[in-house]
Amino acid sequence: MAKAPKIVISHRLHDDGMAVLEKAGAEVVIVGSGEPQDMLPHLKDADGVIIRIGSIDKETMLACPNLKAIGRPGVGVDSVDVAGATELGIPVVIAPGANTRSVAEHAMAMIFACAKNMLVCDQEMRKGNFGIRSEYKAYELYGKTLGLIGCGHIGKILAELATGIGMKVLVYDPYLKEDVVQGWGYGYRASMEDILKEADAVSVHTPLTPATKDMIGEKELHLMKPTAILVNCARGGIINEPALCKALSEKWIQAAATDVVVQEPIRTDDPLFKLENIIVTPHMAGQTKEAASGVATLAAEGVLAVCRGEKWDKVCNPDAYKHARWGEQ
Ligand code: NAD
What we know:
Blueprint: E1 6-9, H1 15-23, E2 27-30, H2 36-43, E3 48-50, H3 58-62, E4 69-71, H4 82-87, E5 92-93, H5 100-115, H6 118-126, E6 145-149, H7 153-164, E7 168-172, H8 178-183, E8 187-188, H9 192-198, E9 201-204, H10 218-223, E10 229-232, H11 241-249, E11 255-258, E12 278-280, H12 289-307, H13 324-327
Parallel strand pairs: 1-2, 1-3, 3-4, 4-5, 6-7, 6-9, 7-8, 9-10, 10-11, 11-12
Helix pairs in contact: 1-12, 5-7
Bound molecules: nicotinamide-adenine-dinucleotide.
Nicotinamide-adenine-dinucleotide (NAD) binds near residues 149, 151 and 234.
């Protein structure tokens, strides 16, 4: 009988994912940290690793000769040295689609909360300021324009949700063709600047890459309407945080909401918390009951399959299967 695989996990997965590993008889080690130096002692003889929060670099992979699979219970792989993994023939298992709807709903909830000025009003009510209701900062979303920066799986569902409440949708995504976007019923803009100028709510749904890092800074924020809302449920660092703080404190835009920040977990003395017109949530858009179960199950199933030698298709680097170690089977 084949030896049970050893799977190292940065942080405990949703129970449904843990159950998949248990059923397979895997030896599971939960480190409680995703820092490479904390995981390394456990990883040295591991077959697979699943990283919820944390990172893995090529140096760590090289120090783990048994390592066959890296799993991410999500689709963001900026924390994994994917090029290094590919070079070493290690597939990086992802969980596409499992948290898409949850993230889109979270972004929609943030747009609603900002448009209705809910966070500020809640804080004022607690101080006894019932009169805040007469500031008329809240507005209807019907007829307003949602600008999407990146319109992949999540952006597309958010576009449907927004259309459902009567918003117009504009898309900036250089990897999509104009006629495709128009075929979906949305406006296409070849320049992000146009989206920033025209939209009442802008929502970012791109991966974090060298091209998207600091994609929205002071210059871009200055283009937005003073009543505009800016939402980021993608990755910290796509919107430059010092620039965002300046824009919010000087009221270049009305409000922002972010599920992600550069430094996670965020410190309580972070400058973002000095502002009243931003909502900050703890990278939880994809952490609904449904999504957490889905991503954990897919990541666990995929990592186990790769450890068994199967060419699992839900990986972000299929080229890893071209490596000699896969040809030998
Ligand atoms: P996706 O790959 O389906 O879509 C990303 C889209 O961004 C693609 O259409 C792509 O063409 C576009 N894009 C890439 N570079 C761009 C650029 N420079 N300018 C404009 N558009 C660009 O991914 P998805 O499933 O929609 O997820 C989007 C991102 O959301 C992920 O990369 C991930 O980092 C983040 N995410 C966050 C959470 C969370 O909990 N907050 C959960 C899941 C995903």
